[in-house]
């Protein structure tokens, strides 16, 4: 505390100094109390945020376990990634070993709903990327996330003007030390930058997503025929058991219609 000259050019005496010392001491106590309160409030807010994030991640992970359909799972994962980072749009890409490329499997947040639906239904083939190509390819090859809050400063990004992208976070999805794909979220809402917290939350979602996607892919391999893409007997037995339990639970009548394919044995004998 600093004081100017005393009125009428009078010097400060011992009484003045004692009074000012008392005021300074009380002020110091009050100020320290306020600082401690603000610190505790900040710690409480941080703890509440951590608990909120953990609760959100738990809910996301729990929901993933109940989705066996791969397409629905991918759409759910991407939707959650966009929501938790407050992004405008995003895409989810999976690695195809046969072509050695990253393919866009689902998109969300596009202004053209019809175009978005066609992409998600695989009616439109989007550009794919080789490992190391573009931001997604770099993330896949390095298994490390990339955050760019100003695309104009990164010459690796492809066609930023055409894609209306200002900023991007790209996170790898890794399961059993293998990268199976990447999640891209672009353009944080209200023109803001993506934060470290956004990246950490997205990494946590990506870790859960990788396990769930791998599980769904294994399930698809187990219940579909690689030659025809049709469901095999195992899928029929699982679904039959589900419907029997449903009919029993609701006391409904269950009927089954079975149709055989003419000369399908010839296909099996020829192509395995």
From TrEMBL:
This is GGDEF domain-containing protein. Signal peptide: none annotated. NCBIfam families: GGDEF. One of its GO terms (biological process) is cell adhesion involved in single-species biofilm formation. GO terms for cellular component: plasma membrane. GO terms for molecular function: diguanylate cyclase activity. It comes from marine sediment metagenome. It holds the Pfam family GAF_2.
């Amino acid at each position: 505390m600093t004081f100017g000259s005393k009125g009428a050019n009078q010097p400060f005496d011992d009484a003045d100094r004692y009074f000012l010392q008392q005021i300074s001491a009380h002020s110091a106590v009050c100020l320290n109390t306020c600082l401690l309160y603000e610190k505790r409030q900040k710690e409480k807010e941080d703890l509440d945020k951590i608990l909120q994030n953990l609760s959100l991640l738990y809910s996301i992970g729990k929901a993933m376990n109940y989705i066996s359909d791969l397409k629905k799972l991918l759409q759910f994962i991407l939707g959650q990634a966009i929501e938790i980072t407050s992004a405008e749009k995003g895409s989810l890409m999976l690695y195809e070993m046969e072509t050695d490329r990253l393919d866009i499997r689902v998109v969300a947040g596009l202004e053209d709903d019809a175009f978005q639906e066609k992409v998600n239904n695989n009616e439109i083939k989007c550009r794919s990327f080789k490992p190391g190509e573009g931001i997604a390819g770099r993330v896949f090859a390095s298994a490390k996330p990339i955050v760019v809050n100003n695309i104009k400063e990164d010459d690796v990004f492809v066609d930023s003007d055409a894609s209306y992208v200002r900023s991007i976070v790209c996170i790898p999805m890794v399961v059993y030390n293998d990268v199976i794909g990447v999640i891209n979220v672009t353009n944080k809402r209200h023109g803001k930058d993506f934060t470290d917290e956004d990246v950490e939350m997205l990494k946590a979602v990506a870790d859960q997503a990788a396990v769930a996607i791998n599980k769904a892919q294994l399930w698809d391999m187990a219940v579909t025929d690689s030659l025809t893409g049709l469901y095999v007997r195992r899928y029929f037995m699982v679904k039959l058991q589900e419907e029997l339990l449903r009919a029993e639970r609701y006391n409904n009548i269950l009927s089954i219609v079975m149709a055989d394919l003419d000369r399908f044995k010839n296909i099996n004998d020829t192509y395995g």
